[in-house]
Amino acid sequence: MGTRTRRTLGAALVAAAGLFAPGAWAEEPRVTCTATLSGRRVLARSEAFAFLSAELDRLVRLGMAGKLEVELTLWKRRALWFNTRVDGARLTQVIVFTREGYVLDGRPLPAGPATLELERVAWTLEARPEEGERLIVQVEVKLNVVTAASLGRMASWLSRTEGAGETDRSVVTGTLLRTVAEDLSQRASGRCDVTPPT
To answer: What is the dihedral of CA 105, 111, 114, 117, to 10 degrees?
Structure first.
């Protein structure tokens, strides 16, 4: 067997091992929601699944807080035209790790962070929807554990640079910090139809 063949075989073996590594089959973050209509009131409940990857879980366990930014939008579906935005809400929830385990906005998560039940949102419509009118809820969730600013402070601390603030960094450094922070975040979106109560 020649050197070239061994290298090719070695590269193929490394690539195959990468495919079977535990992180390669990790579950992607996803969001689900349910929304109900009762009279003029719409109540939306959403859940986020698999948002803490191994890296983010390690950072939260080391004491960093994870900030969940949740945006919910209520839309009126229109046939053959753009949907109409009816209302929206933005929420920020914090996940931390304590001696007792994970906590989301002060609520313990006894089953761990795999399923995060997010805060419910209620809207009151101006009028009851007409017969045949369809409403949908769009949910977007982003989890940030590390931000570009916190990475910059950490880099300044590690390099022992006194007084190096946000303005002292170059454009390249700022872009690099934002890229690394974006790599250490998770995002997902989902939607659901608003259903009448059963």
So the answer is: -40
Helix (H, G, I), strand (E, B) or coil at 42: strand
**Distances in whole angstroms, Cα of residue 12 to Cα of each of 2, 4, 26:** 15, 12, 22
Cβ neighbourhood burial of 140 (10 Å; 0-12, 13-18, 19+) = middle
CA 118 → CA 31, 57, 59, distances in Å?
Answer: 10, 18, 21
- What average pLDDT does this structure show over 18-37? 73
pTM for the full model? 0.71
Question: If you average pLDDT over residues 174-186, what whole number do you get?
Answer: 64
25-145+186-195 domain in CATH 2.60.40.10? yes
Q: Could you state, in order of their start, the residue ranges of all structural domains in the chain? A: 25-145+186-195
* Eight-class DSSP state of 24: G
d(CA 31, CA 181): 21
Q: How far apart are the first and last CA of the chain?
A: 70
